Amino acid sequence: MDLQGQTVLPTPTPRPLDPDLLAQQIVERLTYRMGKNAAAAKPHDWLHAVIMEIRNRVIDAWIASTKKTHEEKGRRVYYLSLEFLIGRLMRDAASNMEMLDAVQVALRKLGVDLDIIAALEPDAALGNGGLGRLAACFMESMATVDVPAYGYGIRYVNGMFRQEISDGWQVELPETWLTHGNPWEFERREASYEVGFGGMVDPAEGPDCGPHQMRWRPGERVIATAYDTPIAGWRGERVNTLRLWEAQPIDPILLDKFNAGDHLGALAESNRAEALTRVLYPADSSPAGQELRLRQEYFFSSASLQDIVRRHVQYHGDIRTLPDKAAIQLNDTHPAVSVAELMRLLVDDHGIDFDEAWDITRRTFSYTNHTLLPEALESWPVPLFERLLPRHMQIVYAINSRLLGEARRSGQFADSSIGAISLIDEGGDRRVRMGNLAFAGSHSVNGVSALHTDLMKQTVFADLHRLYPARINNKTNGVTFRRWLMQCNPGLTGLIREAIGDGFLDDAEKLRDLDRFADDSAFREKFLAVKRANKAALSALLRDRLNARLDPAALFDIQIKRIHEYKRQLLNIVEAVSLYDQIRSHPEKEWVPRVKLFGGKAAPSYHNAKLIIKLANDVARTVNHDPSVQGMLKVQFVPNYNVSMAEVMIPAADLSEQISTAGMEASGTGNMKFAVNGALTIGTLDGANVEMRDHVGEENIVIFGLTAQEVADRRAQGYSPRDVIGESRELAQALEAIAGGVFSPDDPDRYKGLVQGLYDHDWFMVAADFDSYSAAQRQVDALWLDQQLWAKKAIHNVARMGWFSSDRTIREYATDIWKIL
């Protein structure tokens, strides 16, 4: 015991990494945790045993990290995100704990192939796309740069969905990643909180109650129970916590109803609670779907805020010091209701005066915006919000009164324009604007690329920026190179280490030392050989899974991301149709063999996105079975794109498609992953592409299309896509073929509406950018024919991408926003 009489736990003795001892320990885990002997063990048994042994070492560092944080009593970061797309964890943890090589040798001694068992680990279905993957990269980087942090999210049982393709159409099936449990997580029953919905609000009674203090009596309550996953940083110096919430009913079964024969009614409360954490992003095209989405967001926000406040009071006492000890980052608008929830806890539970509580709240929160699409800045119908969260609606109105009063006193706004600042949208159906709530309730609001941040000031938050001109700042996104280079591309990592040493493993900026090898012909040959091996590996995987026959010698042209019209998979497909026509019309020309690969999920209720997936598959079926283009063009849609598939596709890419309409992509992180793995980028000046061009050099990236300003000008001047299409012979012919049923003979009218949309309005400028995009693709063809020059440009991309490490991004957050480094 220490001098205060508290029990002091001994520091764990570092566990040796001798492969023979490690093999023995793995067998012990197999025997005593799995109940199997080595002779009877199946691959999944070995996987579980290996995870158990890696996990033991992670836990040692986890406990030490937690103890260090408690002793230092410093500030801690709380990262609230509806998504954490962490992928498989075994390799990630083993690599960061510097035991991957020892595990591989130990398993070899036991006659077990690490690659085979690693492939059995399910992807955690905790996200959809870039938002969730960014959160995962940030969690790993926070641990790496020694920022004590908790990530907070939802433990989705089925995630978004598992995508299958049936007759070319997307089919959504449950993602059953938790069927056999999750060996990385720990249930924390002591960290359980009640979360309420609906009910009544009454004034609080008592001599010590303040004028704004209220008593909320929810009509429905559920229990949020925590599940913790350790997230190890590089070299295991710090391990942080990802805390995910599971919803449980207060009464799992109503026995009186069950015994009376009402079996469904007896389980209704249980089913209603479990629905909260069943599926990521329930379709919100119906009122029921909207309600479930809002319930999810409040559920995880309330549980997280209760946990943060409980921890602060336990370790620091005075709730008024919360901003000094807690930095809460809102990842997009999904957790924006946390602003109102913290106000409720401060005012109603802790008796803080409203104005003081508002000051505490704003100094505690910061908000990351990820979109310039007004419809993506969430808003909720006032009647729905008030019915589900009556106390929070009162708080939103009170905040809004102060906000609008401040705007009027500033003298900058006429009454006719002040409505843009309001937390309540009065146009049409009254709605609560969650983006405005997050902005108003935070001391810092950041964009995620330089262009995106500038556009935020001019568009979605122009008026709030005028009121608070110092609040918006930029933090360009990054990715963790431990996952997206070292683990997913060991061939390239080994080649880099051979050339420049190991310094880049700890400091990604040292990749710049590779720049001089771009002029080394011997190195270029080795570089191309690594790329060819990665392409062969992807080809073998897709042959096994999809019976797709791809030529690794062809140019691998890849677009993998969420399917959305602004990301313009349609532009890519239309250009593929145009290329198909040209190859058939001009067989005498020397065409570059090209494989076009697509992957991504469409939201279940997003009709046009699902139609684009069907079109990609219809075009693939036609092109791939046409003997006149055999070997010159292949199109393939890869189903159920996820982190594990990305780890195979990205190292195999020659060309990275980053072709969103300029001014609409906040940042992108796929662009960074592709470039550091030696793919050239074809893209618009959108999101982080702008900064990538500045870093890699404009001669090493292929830029096309309208700029963000030119897009805005076209729209303002009355853009006529019909005229543009009429002036482009190749575009007109491709659209005529698609609309005319060439690729859909079973349903000739299938794509008429999709194509008609391009003629009528073309909001995403597919027609406007087509000729520029097509010309850029022919520029790519010409470059591909000179493989030495291609390799030189690709090596420059790898060497100059170090700035886009998420370690750099997190250090900027920690220094400028969280004030923790």
TrEMBL record:
Catalysed reaction equations from the record: [(1->4)-alpha-D-glucosyl](n) + phosphate = [(1->4)-alpha-D-glucosyl](n-1) + alpha-D-glucose 1-phosphate
GO MF annotation terms: glycogen phosphorylase activity; pyridoxal phosphate binding
Modified residues (N6-(pyridoxal phosphate)lysine): 673
Cofactors, names only: pyridoxal 5'-phosphate
Known role: Phosphorylase is an important allosteric enzyme in carbohydrate metabolism. Enzymes from different sources differ in their regulatory mechanisms and in their natural substrates. However, all known phosphorylases share catalytic and structural properties. Allosteric enzyme that catalyzes the rate-limiting step in glycogen catabolism, the phosphorolytic cleavage of glycogen to produce glucose-1-phosphate, and plays a central role in maintaining cellular and organismal glucose homeostasis.
The name this protein goes by in its record: Alpha-1,4 glucan phosphorylase
Documented EC number(s): 2.4.1.1
Compartments, as annotated in UniProt: Cytoplasm
Pfam families linked: Phosphorylase
Keywords: Allosteric enzyme, Carbohydrate metabolism, Cytoplasm, Glycosyltransferase, Pyridoxal phosphate, Transferase
GO biological process per UniProt: glycogen catabolic process
SUPFAM superfamilies linked: UDP-Glycosyltransferase/glycogen phosphorylase
Domain of life the protein comes from: Bacteria
Magnesium listed as a keyword: no
PANTHER family cross-referenced by the UniProt entry: GLYCOGEN PHOSPHORYLASE, GLYCOGEN PHOSPHORYLASE, LIVER FORM
